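Quick start: load a record and inspect it. Here is Transcriptional regulator:
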Amino acid sequence: MDVFLSDEARLRYEQLLSGESLDEHDEVVHELTTFGLVHRDSGTGSLTVAPPGTALRRMLAGRQRELLDALTRLDDQYAQLELLERRFPGSDGGAGETALARSAAEMAAHWHELTAYSTGPCYTLRTTSAPTPFEQRWAAARRLSHLTTPTRFRTVFSSDVLEQPTARAEAERLIGAGGQLRVHPLLPGELVLADHGAMLLVNGPREQLALVVRARGLLIALRHYFDLLWSRSVPFGRTPGDADPPSPAQSQVLRLAAAGLKDEAIARNLGRSTRWVRRHFEVLEERLGATNRLTLGIAAARRGWV
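Running the structure step on this input writes:
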């Protein structure tokens, strides 16, 4: 409670809990009433002191409302920014293609903008376990986005990060809420990638920085790199190499595809429909966590399936 109350209000609340009388005209009591630690009984009309658990719950609920209001205002401001950018395209002379964010607040704002306004999935790399106050603030912003729209996230965790109980609990919450998560032994750094921008968290010589990218060519390259890492990762909770082997039909499909045959030619060779062939590709991509035929081929080759 110390985070919310003044020293005088905290001391007065402790005195009231110990049985001291209430003075409705006391300014400190008014502060306690504002935070819900003191409230008026609906039956008697008199002021009563709330127990610590109830009081803290009310204070946190109030802070949550303030946060939601702030996010709503931020959404409105981003909407206004989007309208301005549409009205005056290219007015910054291309300076917005890349930018550096130096504070946790800037990074949190960029993270929110990227994830909230993406029209498609968001792709993230997770490499930090938030040991410093800076990274704790950054991680809190990341978790807020993950918890509000978990199914839109495809995330790769670095395996050493998952050794931390807090990171593992975060991963389990993300999976439980419908997010997709895989594990890789070594990742280059933190990343969030959306359809209209990306942000990479890097360690500078004296401070942590984030590179914000808007250039289309760089976004395409980052997406290809993420797909490669995803194909070389394993599902959360599994170990490398424990994916079930393909069925005989799936093995035939993979071998013919590796030989360069298109879906229609594979279907003719096997006496099947093109739809049947594509369905097998979809099943294999889902099993190996591949995002397209290229990453499927890489993942299948690594397992010796082709």
